[in-house]
Write a structure and sequence with these properties.
Order of helices and strands: HHHEEEEEEHEHEHEHHEHEHEH
CATH superfamily of the largest domain: Aldolase class I
Number of helices: 11
Helix content: 25-40%
Shape: elongated
Strand content: 15-25%
Radius of gyration: 21 Å
CATH topology of the largest domain: TIM Barrel
Strand order of the largest sheet: 1-2-3-4-7-8-9-10-11-12
């Protein structure tokens, strides 16, 4: 067991089964306030305290009447999550939190800090990676989270409170959070309403630009169809992992239901509607999907479109039958794509020493054996 660091205080989870205040949209918050007999603008004041000042209790909302503060405390809890443990990588750039839900289960969130580049370009920045489900029903073959099985969707407040945990921390220890990626445990687009509820709050209440939010999907087409019509044009990252249908079905069982041709059609429609470049995430697995031939097939699949391919060296997981690609294989795969003219990067390896792969830390802390499964959602 890796040892947790000493952590700063976090708002306690109220033991009463009240909904978190962060479950409410701004419209719902204003409605609650008016139903309690107060003017609508008090809802905006509450939102400013929660999302801009990021305070930890209703009593701290000093410009609200005491009667309203008490009414809120009677109806909502402040903080949907309790910090179970927090770990920092040896280089200090990755911070991973295990957060306890009110029902006792654990989820993971990660803060990644990116320094200024060696050549002096690029600003220091921090990115938060949040989970949207407890476990995951998609069951990708190389993913620690999927092998746990699926428990439930998270609520909007449970997603938002992950972001707020690290937003609060980064205010004290800059750089502050500039980006949020929905790439943690779970398939965000299966839990569409809660995911996009959190997106709306991050944009409208926290004040992040929608271009600073990335939603990842393994190819859940019903959610992608809704996203195409959504007013929040987030950045879309698609977990591709293979340009070959048969191999992708082995790695991502969801591909059997929504094969590559259908998935890519949805990607191109999203791009046409939003003007956003689509990112394809490609986890490189030694001897499985990292051959030069597959790199060329990948280029053929996407080269007519404005895309970004993000190659991801696999974080090793002891109980999975996959290894990380050899450095020379990664370099050759990257070279083939880059020289074709397609934008391609290799993701920096971060947090390997603190179980950074999704689900690893939760599995260790809960002492559970992973559930091996062969099929995704029906």
């Amino acid at each position: 067991m890796i040892a947790p660091i000493t952590t700063t205080a976090t708002p306690a989870v109220t033991p009463v089964a009240l909904p978190p205040i962060t479950d409410l949209s701004l419209t719902s918050l204003r409605q609650v306030v008016t139903e309690l007999g107060h003017p609508e603008y008090r809802g905006d004041q509450i939102a400013a305290w929660v999302y801009r000042s990021q305070i930890g209790a209703f009593d701290e909302m000093s410009n609200l009447p005491k009667s309203l503060r008490q009414a809120l405390a009677d109806r909502f809890r402040f903080g949907a999550l309790a910090l179970e443990a927090e770990f920092v990588s040896s280089d200090g750039e990755t911070r991973k939190a295990a957060l306890r839900l009110p029902d006792g289960d654990l989820i993971e969130s990660v803060l990644m800090r990116y320094p200024t580049r060696d050549d002096g370009t690029g600003a220091e920045r921090s990115t938060v990676c949040v989970s949207t489900q407890v476990g995951c029903p998609v069951k990708c073959a190389f993913c620690a989270t999927g092998l746990m099985g699926f428990t439930r969707n998270l609520g909007t407040g449970e997603i938002m409170d992950q972001a707020l945990h690290f937003l609060r921390w980064s205010r004290a220890v800059p750089p502050t959070v500039r980006n949020v990626v929905f790439m943690g445990m779970g398939e965000p687009l299966i839990n569409y309403d809660a995911t996009m509820g959190a997106v709306a709050l991050l944009v409208d209440a926290v004040g992040l630009g929608v271009h600073r939010l990335t939603v990842s999907t393994a190819g859940w087409l019903p959610g992608m169809s809704r996203l195409i019509e959504d007013k929040y044009a987030v950045r879309l990252a698609v977990s591709l992992h293979s340009p070959d249908d048969a191999l992708r079905t082995t790695l991502v069982p969801l591909n059997k239901r929504f094969p590559l041709a259908t998935l890519l059609e949805a990607c191109w429609e999203y791009q046409a509607r939003t003007g956003r470049r689509v990112t394809f995430e490609y986890t490189l697995l030694d001897g499985v999907n990292d051959t030069p031939a597959l790199a060329r097939d990948l280029v053929a699949l996407v080269r007519r479109h404005d895309v970004h391919i993000n190659l991801i060296p696999m974080n090793p997981v002891a109980y999975l039958p996959f290894g990380a690609s050899r450095p020379e294989a990664v370099e050759e795969f990257h070279r083939i794509i880059r020289e074709s003219g397609v934008i391609c990067t290799v993701r920096r390896e971060m947090g390997r020493d603190i179980r950074a792969a999704c689900g690893q830390l939760r599995t260790e802390l809960q002492g559970r054996e992973p559930v091996r499964a062969t099929a995704g959602p029906a």
